[in-house]
């Protein structure tokens, strides 16, 4: 198995054809075809199906593609680490950050990180599970500052607990059920949540089943965007569940409220999540150090806005 064969496989997947793959790699179509054929021979199994509409991958091909992306990303990380050891602090750091951390600790963390490693290129994603876990799994993302994965996903990832935040049901201020006292009074409303397929049942059990509440499946909207979630809450009667801290942010304070319900929901634990068995790069280590420094500073502060944050958030590190 050779590096150029792996690159040809990835390029073919990304572009959808041998011609486009050859163009993206700057080599001939014959070279791409030969590389793919040799890779299949090395793997002793068919990886691709060549048809009039382009390339499709066999089940074995999809497995190989996942490992190929991981190999390429690991090589890039190794190159970045060697550059760091040569005193050339260049490279790329890809992070997933949960929205409420993005609104509290992230700006200062990035400022501190830029002082220490100004040549590192940063790429940031909102930490919605369906977006960041595939990137983390493939090695394209270095780490996630987000809510800990479900039990079925824990074996794939290493998790370092960081923060625990209280949770609540959130609605717009003028919601017709804003004075209700139980989640049972909200079962005829639409709900907007975020979850992976592996998380769905455990989340619904935590939010509804635990309290003997049964909600129709079609009432649940699965959103992968903070902006979409907030727009739905603000402009409709849709309910949401998440960190209570959202209702404290100046931008949201006049728009949203946390309902006072009889049911008490479990807190969400947030941590530093990496792919199991991966080595944290120097840039990722530096970023985590900066983040911890910022959180500690705010947790010890006597400022009103900091005390409001830590009324619903517990620092676990």
Task: Give a concise summary.
The protein is an alpha/beta fold. The protein is built from 13 helices and 13 strands.
Description:
The protein contains 13 helices and 13 strands. The chain has three domains: 3-70, Winged helix-like DNA-binding domain superfamily/Winged helix DNA-binding domain (Arc Repressor Mutant, subunit A); 90-161 and 270-302, Periplasmic binding protein-like II (D-Maltodextrin-Binding Protein, domain 2); 167-266, Periplasmic binding protein-like II (D-Maltodextrin-Binding Protein, domain 2, 3-Layer(aba) Sandwich), CATH 3.40.190.10. The chain is 44% helix and 21% strand. It has helices at residues 3-15, 18-25, 29-43, 59-85, 99-102, 106-116, 129-138, 151-154, 200-207, 226-235, 250-253, 282-299, 304-312; strands at residues 48-51, 54-57, 91-97, 120-126, 143-147, 157-165, 167-172, 191-193, 220-222, 239-243, 256-258, 268-275, 313-315. It is α/β, with parallel strands linked by helices and 317 residues long. The mean pLDDT is 88.
Given as residue ranges, the uncertain stretches (5+ residues, pLDDT < 50) are none
Bin the helical content.
40-55%
Task: Specify the CATH homologous superfamily of the largest domain.
Answer: Periplasmic binding protein-like II
Structural class: alpha/beta
* Count of helical regions: 13
Tell me the name of the CATH class of the largest domain: Alpha Beta
Mean residue pLDDT:
88
Query: How would a crystallographer describe the biggest sheet?
Result: 6 strands, mixed
Overall form: globular
Topology as H/E string?
A: HHHEEHEHHEHEHEEEHEHEHEEHHE
Named at the architecture level, the CATH assignment of the largest domain is 3-Layer(aba) Sandwich
Strand runs, count: 13
Our count of domains comes out at: 3
At the fold tier of CATH, the topology name of the largest domain is D-Maltodextrin-Binding Protein, domain 2
Fraction in beta strands: 15-25%
The value of Rg in angstroms is: 23 Å
Strand order of the largest sheet: 4-3-5-12-6-13
CA-to-CA gap between the ends?
43 Å
